[in-house]
Design goal:
This protein has 399 residues and is an alpha/beta fold. The protein folds into two domains: 266 residues, Rossmann fold, CATH 3.40.50.10540; 72 residues, formyl-coa transferase, domain 3. The chain is 38% helix and 15% strand. It is built from 17 helices and 13 strands. The strands form four sheets. A six-stranded parallel sheet has the order 5-2-1-6-7-8, with helices on both faces. It has a three-stranded antiparallel sheet with strand order 9-10-11, covered by helices on one side. Strands 3-4 form a two-stranded antiparallel sheet.
């Protein structure tokens, strides 16, 4: 019998995070069933002001990053607000924070302080560059991390062109996912020993993890690979080609698929060309290979080529826009596009949980909280009286 709560049902998480990396970590845990309580300043997470677009006055960006969480506003500089958070943290399993280095310590909320009250606490820090090393005091943003990790040197159409960042904020998102992975690893150990620990990751490290192939090449050759457009640094043909009405990605990444490909597109003569006989030869002559293959793909539409290539066993796929991806039947079938009923914005579509569980399915259970929406509810759970709740919630200047 399946359980509808998700595999992390029962885990209590306090999120002291804003913008994206920390909230992604909280989102992943929340989608898998954890009770994530998001603590905000009076003005709210800065993403609430990342507008346009808005839906009925609510930030679309905030709603995307904070579904499945409960929300409370606390003034952490006031003795009362700080004490309330300390009470919450004394029984929490996890705390997530992505403030500048030293902020939590100044508030009396550093790991060494909190672990005295709660030895089992898992304290997840997500920062720009990590809490150690010469850049530990620097703030971090996705753009900066992508540049310093080398990602912008390998993204784009070719040498001599301006640097290009990956379109999605991959260091922010990946840092959040790595943070969640670290939390789960620490939680597994805590189940064995009862001991919590600090989990520390960063945007910089998250961006570096996306350079595995290029770093392997650089370690082996001493040379830094450059941008290759949609092409692959190790396999060919593995890239986008223009068709009669758009673009198609071709994944002929091994010899068998190469031979199938040229047969299916009517270019079997290329099999006798020594420049393309092996993957190594194709990589050495990639520009010529691309030039020779392109006219073949321009003779049919993307859909026509997909039918031919899929029928022949060659991996291929269209280059979709974001809205086309949202409408894709596979994305819908995998519940990657789901809806929530927001009390202000109405029915709002969002992205679903990318990990499926057979016995304890996770998913989107509630919309993102309105600012402070669950404050009274949360404080009641921690033993506060109605009068104390009114007093606490009335004090909420910006942190």
């Amino acid at each position: 019998m399946t359980q509808p709560h998700g595999p992390l049902h029962g885990m209590k998480v306090i999120e002291l995070a804003h913008i994206m990396a920390g909230p992604v970590c909280g989102l992943m845990l929340a989608d898998m069933g954890a009770d994530v309580i998001k603590v905000e300043k009076a003005a709210g997470d800065d993403t609430r002001r990342s507008v346009p677009p808005e839906i009925e006055g609510e930030s679309a960006a905030f709603m995307m990053m904070n579904r499945n969480k409960r929300g409370i506003v606390l003034d952490l500089k006031s003795p009362e607000g700080n004490a309330a958070l300390r009470r919450m943290l004394s029984t929490a399993d996890v705390v997530i924070e992505n403030y500048r280095k030293g902020t939590m310590e100044k508030l009396g909320l550093g790991y060494e302080t909190l672990r005295k009250d709660n030895p089992g606490l898992i304290y997840c820090e997500i920062s720009g560059f990590g809490r150690t090393g010469p850049y530990a005091d620097r703030g971090g943003f996705d753009l900066i991390a992508q540049g310093m990790a080398g990602l912008m040197s390998i993204t784009g159409e070719g040498a001599g062109r301006p640097p290009v960042k990956v379109g999605a904020p991959v260091s922010d998102i990946t840092a959040g996912i790595l943070g969640a992975m670290g939390v789960l690893a620490a939680y597994t150990r805590r189940l064995q020993t009862g001991e919590g620990q600090k989990v520390d990751t960063s945007l910089f490290e998250a961006a570096i993890t996306h350079t595995y192939w290029q770093s392997a090449i650089a370690f082996a050759t001493g040379l830094s690979p450059g941008p290759m457009g949609s092409a692959h640094p190790l396999n060919a043909p593995y890239q986008a080609f223009g068709t009669a009405d758009g673009w198609i990605n071709i994944g002929a990444a091994n010899q068998a698929n190469w031979e199938r490909l040229i047969d299916l597109i009517g270019a079997s003569n290329l099999n006798d060309d020594p420049r393309f006989a092996t993957n190594n030869a194709r990589m050495s002559n990639l520009d010529v290979l691309t030039e020779m293959l392109t006219p073949y793909f321009q003779t049919k539409t993307t859909d026509e080529w997909l039918a031919v290539l899929e029928g022949g066993g060659v991996p291929a796929g269209p280059v979709l826009s974001i809205t086309e991806m949202h409408a894709d039947p596979q994305a819908r079938a995998r519940e990657m596009i789901v809806a929530t009923a927001h009390p202000t914005a109405g029915e709002v579509e969002t992205l679903g949980l990318p990990v499926k569980f057979s016995q304890t399915p996770g998913g989107v259970r509630r919309p993102a909280p309105r600012l402070g929406e669950h404050g009274a509810e949360v404080l009641r759970e921690y033993g506060y009286s109605a009068e104390e709740i009114d007093s606490l919630l009335a004090r909420s200047p910006d942190l």
